[in-house]
Design a protein that fits this description.
Elements lengths: L2 H21 L10 E7 L5 E7 L4 H13 L1 H11 L7 E6 L2 H30 L1
Parallel strand pairs: 2-3
Antiparallel strand pairs: 1-2
Helix pairs in contact: 1-3
Length: 127
């Protein structure tokens, strides 16, 4: 990504978060969606918006569908907030990195517990 697309992605992320928080009243948004990052295409025509939503799988997919449904309105509001010749189309995606990180941390915790148990058994055998 170029410096320009990174900067635009950051601006879009901040503005979208404020618009969603203040203006989007959709009952499908039960948990507050968090925009983890925005990736803008090199020609600035598409912005891939990655979100996480706390809740069950059903709540997450409902929130994602609500944001996808509201993408046109969000783009129109974004056009008013930032001055661009052409505002990129918004494509919302669920960010699975958080889920993967939590699974990795859980695996590391289990390994640490197993190592601690093995150390206890070894120290008991020595005595």
């Amino acid at each position: 990504m170029s410096r320009r697309t990174e900067r635009l992605g950051s601006i879009i992320q901040q503005e979208l978060a404020m618009i969603i928080l203040r203006e989007l009243n959709d009952p499908r948004l039960t948990g507050l969606p968090t925009i983890t990052h925005v990736k803008v295409s090199p020609d600035l025509s598409i912005a891939d918006v990655y979100i996480t939503v706390m809740g069950t799988e059903g709540q997450q997919s409902a929130a994602l569908n609500a944001l996808r449904h509201s993408a046109g309105m969000l783009r129109a509001r974004l056009t008013r907030e930032i001055s661009l010749r052409i505002t990129p189309f918004l494509k919302f995606h669920m960010d699975d990195n958080l889920k993967k990180e939590l699974e990795l941390l859980d695996t590391l915790r289990k390994v640490a517990e197993e190592n601690a148990e093995l150390d206890r058994k070894r120290s008991q055998e020595i005595k």
